[in-house]
Specification:
Blueprint: H1 3-22, E1 34-40, H2 46-65, E2 74-80, H3 85-97, E3 103-105, H4 110-124, E4 128-130, E5 147-149, H5 154-167, E6 172-178, H6 181-193, E7 197-203, H7 211-217, E8 224-228, H8 231-243, E9 250-252, H9 259-265, H10 267-270, E10 274-279, H11 287-298, H12 307-324, H13 329-339, E11 345-348, H14 351-362, E12 367-370, E13 386-394, E14 400-409
Parallel strand pairs: 1-2, 1-3, 3-4, 4-5, 6-7, 6-8, 8-9, 9-10, 11-12
Antiparallel strand pairs: 10-13, 13-14
Helix pairs in contact: 1-4, 2-12, 2-14, 3-4, 5-6, 8-9, 12-13, 12-14
């Protein structure tokens, strides 16, 4: 991203922040809502974004049914990040400067989350929680403590993907990964945990033809291909690999955990192919009640990944604002760790738990939010101290079957 573009964005956001500081002494209207922005790739991944938006809307509904934050309603504003960093940064800027959001849920992709964290969230002092950006690069983002995530870093997923690959009987694999912060991070994490032979090949995110890359990855006699790419590119890679007879065996990272992939290729060709992805806790006290609330609202369970994580991100921002007694960004940021970890009273990621948490905070108490997906015990970088990685597989009848959930503790 050009330096001039970064400087212009930073200058604009600094002016906005100064303006906010100058008006900080003014008493806001009691009825003014808390505004939370939702920043997702609505145009490039509409099904994924739709499922996460349902969880976002459900969280806001539960907060408002409990009386809102600081006696105010919570309102939502949406913006389309796409997978273009420039577009994502501009969308985040509009949420902050034009819509006046107090916090942001998103972005979903690491390639957008990294510049948004460093060029928008930090400079504008707007707490931002991504439910699904997993690149290890985000741990060291220059965000002044304003960026968090409710999904584990791929330092946790890589070792599980390597383990599953070995357990499938392979000791020599090719690896094709999208050359962006997400792909590079998960690929490196996989490589560091892989004991067998490996030939890794990066591909441009906009690339549509992959024959040369497939041939290079298979050049040392690879038995299977590990695919770390988003849905549209994973489809292209797998189709070309199958059509050219280069690979018949595949393993997948979380961005390829889409039923559309097995439906596109057919269960006869992708059935019994395994993958990994971040996962909610396999059985926590919130699960049944949250599942029931989601199904009552939408007629069925979530279909895709990082849905409960989106709910938790939204609720956490509301709880932190209530704990702070303010909608000021720095005040919200400074309460995020306290509402998600001991020594507070545990409250669950359910309609009743959200209401109880808001009530206790309003009365001056402390809470430990035990989310619908995971506990939100964040470290100093905004990374989860613990969470889960799931192992899944495509089935011959073109479904996704969940197999095992593995605890990660940092």
């Amino acid at each position: 991203m050009p330096n001039l573009f970064r400087l212009l964005v930073a200058a604009s956001l600094l002016l906005a922040a100064v303006a906010c500081d100058e008006s900080a002494g003014e008493e806001p209207e009691t009825s003014a809502p808390m505004k939370i922005g939702l920043l997702l790739d609505f145009s490039g991944a509409p099904e994924t974004a739709a499922d996460r938006k349902r969880a976002f809307d459900l969280a806001i509904r539960h907060v408002n049914e409990a009386g809102g934050v600081l006696g105010r309603p919570v309102e939502s504003v949406e913006a389309d990040s796409t997978l273009d960093p420039r577009v994502g940064v501009e969308a985040a800027r509009r949420l902050v400067e034009s819509e006046g959001v107090h916090a942001i849920v998103g972005p979903n992709a690491s390639v957008i989350a990294l510049p948004v964290a460093e060029m928008v969230a930090g400079p504008a002092r707007v707490p931002t929680i991504s439910p699904s950006a997993t690149s290890p690069q985000l741990t060291a983002a220059a965000d002044d403590g304003y960026f968090y995530r409710t999904a584990l870093s791929d330092t946790a997923q890589g070792p599980v993907l390597a383990r599953v690959t070995g357990e499938r009987g392979f000791d020599n694999v090719g690896l094709i990964y999208v050359d962006d912060p997400y792909g590079r991070g998960l690929a490196r994490s996989f490589e560091e945990s892989w004991d067998g032979q490996l030939r890794a090949v990066p591909v441009d995110p906009e690339q549509t033809v992959h024959l040369a890359d497939l041939q290079e990855s298979a050049g040392a006699g690879a038995q299977a291909l590990v695919v770390i790419a988003f849905e549209h590119q994973a489809v292209a890679i797998v189709r070309e690999a199958l059509d050219e007879g280069i690979y018949t065996q595949f393993l997948f990272g979380d961005a390829s955990k889409r039923s559309s992939l097995v439906k596109e290729m057919g269960g006869d060709r992708l059935g019994d192919m395994y993958g990994t992805a971040g996962a909610p806790a396999p059985a926590n006290d919130a699960a049944a009640a949250w599942d029931a609330a989601f199904e009552a609202a939408y007629g069925g369970p979530p279909q895709l990944t990082y849905v409960k994580e989106t709910y938790d991100a939204t609720v956490a921002l509301a709880l932190a604002a209530q704990a702070a007694g303010s909608l000021d960004g720095a005040a919200i940021r400074d309460q995020l760790r306290s509402i998600g970890s001991p020594p507070g009273e545990p409250v669950l990621g359910t309609p009743e738990g959200v209401a109880e948490g808001l009530r206790m905070l309003a009365a001056g108490g402390q809470i430990d939010y035990q989310g619908a997906a995971n506990s939100l015990d964040w470290d100093s970088n905004g990374d989860l101290r613990q969470g889960y990685i799931g192992i899944w597989r495509f089935t011959r009848d073109e479904r996704i079957e969940e197999l095992e959930t593995i605890l990660f503790q940092n």
